[in-house]
Amino acid sequence: MSETKIFCTGVTGYIGGDAIFAIVKLHPEYDITCLVRNSDKGAQVASQYSKIKLVYGDLDNNVLLEEEARKADIVLHTANADHAGAAIAIARGISSRKSPGYFIHTSGTGILGFADLAHKTYGEAATKVYNDWDGVSEVTSLPDSAPHRNVDKIVLAAGRDNVDIVKTAIVCPPTIYGEGRGPGNRRSIQVPNLIKATLEKQEGVVVGAGQNWWTNIHVADLSQVYLRLVEEASKSGGSATWGEDGYYFTEREEFQWRKAAKAVASAAHKKGFISKDSITTVSAEEADRLVPSGSFLWGTNSRCKAVRANRQLAWVPEQRSIYDDIPDEVAREAKRLGLKAST
């Protein structure tokens, strides 16, 4: 590509903001256009990136999404894993191009929690571990009831139905931690909300037995996957896989939610925000009252191995572990909530 043109959604969000930070830092020559909802969001982006072009609208503006997708060589879609209309519009726009366009879509490993959701087995350990290499066909044919699955299917079908023009890749992040570097939201969801619940209840929180497993990734390491996929797309696909098998888990390591809850309580206690470092068991219903979908966020299993990004993109996570990050995350959340440590 003579001049790589990128269209990005979600630039003021946690994932998209950090991804664009990594991309612009290494490739200031890229021609980037970002979708923002209003002038306030636009001002946030412009204050950090004077060269980025802005278009105003939201994910329901199908005509705008289709047009921008048609003009871009690469679409980086990070705004919403569950917005079917946006995925359809982007796919339609790329399919109307005369030359190949690359569609990098963001899903999430919550898709792997479908069995726990169906059977309401919260806080229990599961043994099934998915992988995106020799097990990729299993991942791309999960039950329709799985979270994010409906939009995953739209993206996969777009690449399958117009294989010469629509080149798709699905990035599937797990629990993300670390402070973002984008122009808008820099806060993740699962761990910060667990910290919030811990500070409110004055003790650690675990759903059921807390024996369930997820994987995790630092947001800066996640951004390296987006960066490398964009780089390969700019080289007419490069060494990356696109299409049906272009599915990328992005995990650093596994963790058990009981251990994470204990680490949060310990850090909050050491910093003087709670009086004891014990943890308490809550039901799925109580978890949902503490935070929307708390039983899903903290009580399901989502186990996977990120093989493809390592083998094809030479991607290796380099940031500190989730446990090393939790004390700083506790401090950030307490500050956000306006809490003072007891003396």
Summarize this structure as a short list of keywords or feature phrases:
single chain, 343 residues, alpha/beta, seven-stranded parallel β-sheet, three-stranded mixed β-sheet, 14 strands, 42% helix, globular
Explain this structure to me?
- The protein is of the alpha/beta class and 343 residues long.
- The longest helix has 16 residues, at 219-234.
- The chain is globular, with a radius of gyration of 20 Å.
- It has 14 helices and 14 strands.
- 49% of the residues are buried.
Task: Give a topology summary.
Blueprint: E1 5-9, H1 14-26, E2 31-36, H2 39-48, E3 53-56, H3 62-71, E4 74-77, H4 84-95, E5 101-106, H5 114-119, E6 130-131, H6 136-139, H7 149-161, E7 166-172, E8 175-177, H8 190-201, E9 204-207, E10 213-218, H9 219-234, E11 247-249, E12 253-256, H10 257-270, E13 279-282, H11 284-290, H12 294-299, E14 304-305, H13 308-313, H14 322-336
Parallel strand pairs: 1-2, 1-4, 2-3, 4-5, 5-7, 6-14, 7-11, 8-10, 9-13
Antiparallel strand pairs: 10-12
Helix pairs in contact: 1-9, 3-4, 4-7, 8-10, 8-14, 10-14
